[in-house]
Amino acid sequence: MPVHRFALLLALVLAVCAGSAAAAPLDALVASRLARGGGVSGGFVLDTTTGRTLASVRADTARIPASVNKLFTSSTALLRFGPDATLTTRVLGIGTLDDAGTWHGDLYLRGGGDPTFGSASFDRLAYGLGTTVSALAARVRAAGILRVTGRVRGDESWLDRLRGGPASGYALDLDVGGPLGGLLYNRGLAREDGSALQRQPAKFAAQQLTLELRRTRVRVVQGAAIGTAPASAEEIASVESPTMATLARLTLVPSDNLFAEMLLKNLGASFGAAGSTAAGVTVVESTLARLGVRPQIADGSGLSRADRTTPRQVVALLNALRANAPLRAALPVAGRSGTLAERMRRTSAQDRCQAKTGTLSNVSALAGYCRTPNGHLLAFAFIENLVYTPIAKAAEDRLTIALARTRPGGTPIATPVTQPTTPTTPAPMPSAPADGGGGGAAPTTR
Question: If you ran DSSP here, which 8-state letter would residue 298 be given?
Answer without folding.
Answer: S
